[in-house]
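Notes from the 1:1 (GR / supervisor)

We went over the backlog. Supervisor wanted to see one worked example end to end before approving the batch request, so GR pasted a single chain during the call. The sequence is below; no edits were made to it. Supervisor asked that the structure be written out right there so they could see what the output format looks like.
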Amino acid sequence: MVPDFVVTGAGPGYPERETWTRQMDFMMSCVGFAVGLGNVWRFPYLCYKNGGGVFLIPYLLIVFVGGIPIFFLEIALGQFMKAGSINVWNIAPLFKGLGYASMVIVFFCNTYYIMVLAWGFYYLIKSFSATLPWSTCGNEWNSENCIESFHHQNCNNASLANVTVSGNMTCAELADARSPIIEFWENKVLNISSGLDEAGSISWELTLCLIAVWVLVYFCVWKGVKSTGKIVYFTATFPYVVLIILLVRGVTLPGAYDGIMYYIKPDWSKLEEAQVWIDAGTQIFFSYAIGLGALTALGSYNRFNNDCYKDAFVLALINSGTSFFAGFVVFSILGFMAAEQGVDISQVAESGPGLAFIAYPKAVSLMPVAPLWAALFFFMLLLLGLDSQFVGVEGFVTGILDLFPEKYHHRYKREIAVAICCSLCFIIDLSMVTQGGMYVFQLFDYYSASGMTLLWQAFWECIVVAWVYGADRFMDDVARMIGYRPFPWMKWCWSFITPCVCIGIFLFHLVNYKPLTYNNVYVYPWWGEVIGWCLALSSMLCIPVSLLYKLFRAKGTFKERWAHLTSPVWGAHHLEYMAPDMKSLSSLSPSTDDNKVIIFESVM
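Structure output shown during the call:
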């Protein structure tokens, strides 16, 4: 017999939780959130960096031992508890710090991720011109070293050092030459300063772009899942249309075959390197959006009997499939760029913002009818990021609203909560539209929602569900929802395999920690790293601090405190689905207070 547990808010006036209009709304929202910019720029880069096609071996292995088990765990937990990322941990209240940690992480993500959208929106606007501004020199932001075509192939002979090969430049001077696309990115868009300690002025153009995307996010989210579920039909599917168009165009370009072969050709020796396995693990946690609490929030709007087990596998297949497909698009274009410039593909392939705002704009500028391709690409970039952004905001707002009892809710509670969230993030974002903004952006990106924070979060999620609540017990709960027991593999992963994978990769990250740099040149000052670690620890410490606080505040012996604080606090819907032989409890007298608490023994 397990300990007694508590049911809260079981009165007849207890409001039912909002649900998706159709189950496909949930699927599309999950696709929109999990399939984002990381699939398009990070996965292909990691593939080429870690041995091409051979990277798929550790990637797929960790998908099955880490990605899918935790992805399923988060969705199932949200669906079972019918709560956002904080209240979902009423399943073991002592570990509610997990909810607070995920809220901190997703808040940081919402804050800095939107900058990529602001930059993308800026490029989209600039695409509507006869000549793309980043394709030519001679603009006010270009330096004397700007050169449109490098012609390195004409400088292969050392005796040609003083021969003029491009513009007024000699072969010897080509080493210092700068591409117009890099100068547009650094001198015009970012107007980047010399370091983190030099904030500089605010860019009014970027600020306007930032306001525009935040307003867009607000009106996508303010009415809840009923509206969000409809919008993602467009924002989640249109990028696939653009990717297919870009692939068809990409494979017809000269050099595309070499680029694709570079992407998929396996280098078996790479399997011996630990870094390959680490990259595979962190990429899965990033692209599957694990540990952010948003999947839990989306799952909480499902019907109680929805088959979330099947959904988890379908969504995982879509996510990883998109990553792999995007690789063909990326490397067909990079192969063309390498052939055009006469250099090796490794010299044109970059990661992160460098790929999105340097390599891609360069690629589209070399295509016929360049402005059309540029507008198409940046519109896709905007949509890829937008659905991830507003589902992230949805997850954060859901968690906040779940903290407040229904009787304290205002008629326009959601609209107000979303407005406060967007406004607060926007104020912080103002530090990222300054001349030193890129350094601030990288601090957030490297520390606040890094691999380490997500791995730490995933490790504790597995421990709480498998060892505190009980893996077998949760499998029974899942069986109640979907009508059958999932394959025991899930239980084994939650209990042993996934926590070991998470803590192993986490420790490797810690041991091989390297100070943050920008472009491998600028090294962040010590106080910058301190700020970064504060961002990381602000979420990671939520779990131990909350646990210790609750234990010290409770009364009784340690065993009594533990038993009390790990006893689940059930919601009203559990009466109907989990205790059918105790129907009398759900038909309380109309005069019963809405907030009455009922204690009864588990019948599980």
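Supervisor's comment: The radius of gyration is 26 Å.
Batch request approved.
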